[in-house]
Amino acid sequence: MSAQNKSLRLIVASSNAGKLREYRALAASAGASLDLQLIPNFDALPKFDEAANTFAENALGKALHYSRFSEGLVIADDSGLVVPALGGAPGVHSGRYAGPDASDADRVNKLVDAMRGKKGADRRARFVCVVALVERGEARGIFSALAEGELLEAPRGENGFGYDPIFFSPALGKTFAEITRKEKNQHSHRGKAFRKALDFLLSDC
C-alpha cells in the first residue's frame, strides 16, 4: 500500500476513545495518513440498535445511521467471537453474552463454563470483524476478516480485552492476551478488516 502521500478523513461511528486509538494505531501500522475522529456529540444522537443477526448488517446499519449526522466518510464495525460447537454463539451477542452489565471477566467465565468438557475440534473458534464505509447515506464498501484459533480452559495473559485471554492462536503459539499490540494489529480480525478497507479507499483516491 503506497499510503504515505495520501490523506483521508474518516469519522468513527462511536464515542469510544479506546476504539479511536485502536483505529489510529491500525492506520499507523499500515503506513496510512488518516485523520480519524469520533462523531461529535455522539451520545446526544439517536442511538442505533445493533439488533441484526449478522455482523455485516450491524456494521452497515450503524454506518448508514450515523452518516445522517456527518458530512464525511463514516466507518463502523461489528465484531465478535464465533464458536461452531456452541451453534455460533456468542456471535453478534459477544458483548452482551453474560448480560448487559457484565464485565469481560464475566463473559469469559460464562464461555469457559459453556465449553467445559469439549475437546479437540469442538474447541475451535474464530473472531470475526466486518467494517463498513458509508458516505452521505450510501455504502462505499463492506470488508470482513477472520482470526482462527481455539479456546483454552483457563485465561492466559494480561493484554487485550474481551475474550482475548482464552483465545489461543496456534499460528502465534499464544493467546491474544499474550501478544503485543503490534502483533495484534497484524493478526487480529479487526486489523485485517481495517487494512482491507484502507486498501480500497487508498486505491480509490
Summarize the SSE layout with pairings.
Layout: E1 7-12, H1 17-29, E2 33-38, H2 55-67, E3 73-82, H3 104-114, E4 124-135, E5 138-151, E6 167-169, E7 174-175, H4 181-187, H5 189-203
Q: Low-confidence stretches at least 5 residues in length (pLDDT < 50)?
A: 1-6
Give the SSE string. Answer: EHEHEHEEEEHH
Computed Rg: 17 Å
Total number of domains: 1
Number of strands: 7
- The number of helical elements comes to 5
Highlighted features:
disordered N terminus, alpha/beta, 7 strands, 26% strand, 205 residues, 7-stranded mixed sheet, Maf protein
Commentary on this structure:
With 205 residues, the protein is of the alpha/beta class. It has a single domain (7-203), classed as Maf protein (Alpha-Beta Complex), CATH 3.90.950. 29% of the residues lie in helices and 26% in strands. It is built from 5 helices and 7 strands. The protein has helices at residues 17-29, 55-67, 104-114, 181-187, 189-203; strands at 7-12, 33-38, 73-82, 124-135, 138-151, 167-169, 174-175. Strand 1, helix 1 and strand 2 (33-38) form a beta-alpha-beta unit. Helix 4 (181-187) crosses helix 5 (189-203). The longest helix is centred in the C-terminal third of the chain and has 15 residues, at 189-203.
